[in-house]
Structure prediction request, 312 residues.
Amino acid sequence: MIKASQLTKKYDEMYAIRDIDLDLGQGDLFGFIGPNGAGKTTTMRIIATLLTPTYGEAYVCGHSIYTHPKEIRRLVGYMPDFFGVYDDMTVIEYLEFFAAAYRIAPQARRKRCNEMLEVVDLDFKRDAFANTLSRGQTQRLGLARVLLHDPAVLLLDEPLSGLDPRARIEMRALMRRLGGMGKTIIVSSHILPELADVCNKVGIIDSGVLIANDDVNSIIRKVRPNVVLLIETADPSQTEAAAKILEQQTATDSVEVKGRQLRVLIKTTVEDYSDLASALISSGIRIRKFAEEEINLESAFMAFTKGAGAKI
Ligand SMILES: Nc1ncnc2c1ncn2[C@@H]1O[C@H](COP(=O)(O)OP(=O)(O)O)[C@@H](O)[C@H]1O
Ligand SMILES: [Mg+2]
Prediction:
């Protein structure tokens, strides 16, 4: 859906972005993460055909930004980091204004606008003046606006910035829903962890250079290749016995006793570790907890990018 190769933008001698490669398929939700000034907006504006690169290529659904910008604009919904709403328009008037600009037929406009207000959960504000909305509601209105022409690709530039925690959660849920609808989404942020749990792919950009670009699961696997199980017996006096049994299992790499809890490293080659539970139970050990240790995505990404000298 989105392909970029060696995308480069120079301002005088300064590289805003340099040799950016991207390859995103349908339904991908790509978290584009980097500090202020890293080149996120530049990259997104080039893909939206609002800015011409100095060098490199980008395609949206097979259309080149150089030869088919009109087709691309039809396929893309671009939400800039800041956008104005007009003082004297209600929410529904604002959307209908853009629906007209998108050349949605007059008879279909009202229905389409109402549907999009429902998608972003803003129908209760349809007759409010647009400039009275909170930041979170304004962002959702902006999203409704870029969804009007049913774009296959969404480019959302820092949609979470300036939102309170609740509005962030709602916006993230909305992005997940849109990804589930099969849309390809690039969403940028300067905060590393806030996107990690919604995206399936992550790119980290620093000083115009993409220093990491992979799917979330492979990043996690690279940082920590082994599954770690946390096991607790119902009766604390069985902890040691459980450790002995677990050590003898072929799936086990190592067992560490941490107070009441056993931390079991599973061999990288093993996918199914359910035998461990059976082994414990058949030896008369009652299990209170048997779970995979959760990975802290933030530290995983930190570890992943450390070698590349990331500052985020
Ligand atoms: N029109 C411009 N003229 C000169 N430099 C620019 C222009 N637009 C962006 N830049 C520079 O390009 C770099 C990348 O900016 P930008 O893409 O906006 O970063 P981000 O969105 O990640 O904060 C920054 O150093 C910025 O100052
Ligand atoms: Mg920006």
Notes: The pocket of adenosine-5'-diphosphate (ligand 1) is lined by residues 11, 16, 34, 36-42 (CB under 6 Å). The chain has two domains: 2-221, 225-292. The first strand starts at residue 2 and ends at 11. The chain has a mean pLDDT of 90.
